[in-house]
Structure formats: structure tokens, C-alpha cells
Design brief:
Elements: E1 4-8, H1 17-25, H2 29-36, H3 41-61, E2 71-73, E3 79-81, E4 93-99, E5 102-108, E6 112-119, H4 128-134, H5 141-148, H6 153-174, E7 185-188, E8 199-200, E9 204-207, E10 210-212, E11 215-220, E12 225-232, H7 244-247, E13 255-256, H8 259-263, H9 274-281
Parallel strand pairs: 1-13
Antiparallel strand pairs: 1-5, 2-3, 4-5, 6-12, 7-9, 8-11, 9-10, 11-12
Helix pairs in contact: 1-9, 2-3, 5-6
Amino acid sequence: MGSVRWAFPCAAWHPCRREWLLAARLVQPEEKDRIGQFVFARDAKAALAGRLLIRKLIAEKLCIPWNEIHLQRTSKGKPFLANNVVTNYPNYNFNVSHQGDYAVLAAEPELQVGVDIMKTNLPGSSSVPNFFRIMKRQFTETEWDVIKSMSDEWMQLDMFHRHWALKESFLKAIGVGVGFNLQRIEFNVSPLQLEIGKVYRETKMLLDGDEEEWTFEETRLDDHHHIAVALGKQEEFGQKHSDVHSMEPDQPQFTLLTFEDLVASGIPVTPEDSAYWDNFCSKQESPVQQHSRSR
């Protein structure tokens, strides 16, 4: 079993009643309830898609029947498989992210993995320079030099979000949350320009000033979305990963899934709840004040 990279365009998904109620039946009751509490339809769709991606992965790659999969969350909120099962892949790792227009999943049979997707958007209520001032402590001086070397504000924002995805992917791989000093990690991004659809592995990371032997896959899914996948050996972060490169998979591209792909192996976990459709229909798609720019 090799690497898995999946993406689902949740923003473009406009579910009919049948699709939404089917999807709701395919997740655990507590997750269904949590998703139903989102104020905006955009967020509910993204969260539901993320859970379906995980269950599809486990059902199809670990061969655990969909309705027997039991997911729990760590204290930091990271989902994990709680089933006490014996598989050929005891260290199988997966991670999901949803932001912007997509939900994405990355999985590895032997490596620690973290994934993050970021959509380049204008900051909602402040200018770009003011936004950068607010975020100043999140990056090192070297990283800011690269970000601000871009030719215009939009390109600077794009590079900002690329760096942010890289940092988040690492934090998600090692399972830490709020409170980690982001200036401890510094990325030397390469190349500066990423072509859509290609997978790059040239970016390097320093931790407390020393280069770490983690691998970072970078993909530009479209004009607006960066994906970063952090890959490290199965040991505590901060240790040297001497043979991580020999364990790396080929450079897998993200496969775009349809709703039919998402639910193909689904077996309902809960009965149909028609009120769940009414709940979804009452939601506004997204905040009115949100700003974005197309280029």
C-alpha cells in the first residue's frame, strides 16, 4: 500500500437532499452533531467531507468495514483510528485539512504525516501591510524577507500563505497545537514559483537553527490554493531522521474526488434524519463580509 493524496472540492459541492442525508448517515453520531452546529454551510460541508475522506481511506486501504470504523480525537483534536485491529500497517498515518474551497487528505503507511491547505485571500478587514504587522511574530526575519521580496502585494500574500501551510503541516504531523513558537521553525522555500499540478520537494526546514531531515511536499492545486505535506520518521520530532528519504514515496499528485467517489464504499452508521436537511438548508453559505480576489 502506497501513499494517498486526495482532494474534494467542497465549496463547489451543492448537495441535494439525498446526498446530504446520505453523507450524514456515514459518520459517527457525535461527528454528525458537531457538523450540524456549524453556522455556515461552507464549514459544515468542509467538515463533513473531511470525515468522509478519513472513513473512505480506512475502509479501502485498511479493509475495515465502514460501519465498524471508530474514530476518536487526541487531546489536540487530531483524529485517529481507535479500533483495536491487527493490520499489516500498524504505523499507518493520515491527516486532513480543509480551508478555502477544498478538503484534502494525505496518508502514509510508515511516515508521520501532516497536511495543510491554504487559500490566498485578501485579509478581511485590514490592509496587507497592517495584516503583516499583526502576523509579524509568526515568521522569522528570513521568511519575511522572502515574503516581502515578491513583486506586489498579491504575490506577497500568496507567499505568506505558502509559508503558513508549511508551518501548519509540520505542527499537525508532530501533533502539537496552540502555544508552539512558530519562530522556532524556519522554511527555506524552493523554488520560489510553483507550477499548478506539480509536486515539489525542495523546500528545507530549520528547527531551532538546525536543518531537520523532514520532507515537505508542496503542491499548487490551482491559482489560489497551496498544499503542504510534512513527512517524517516515526519518532519524536527534534531527533535526526537519518533514513527518512529512503522511505519516501514517489511524488504523488492529489487526486480530485467526486461525491460518488467519497461515498463509494460507505455503509450507513446512523438512521436517516430528515431534520438534518432542514438544518443544513437554514444555513447561510458563508459570511457576507468575506473578501477574496481572483487572479
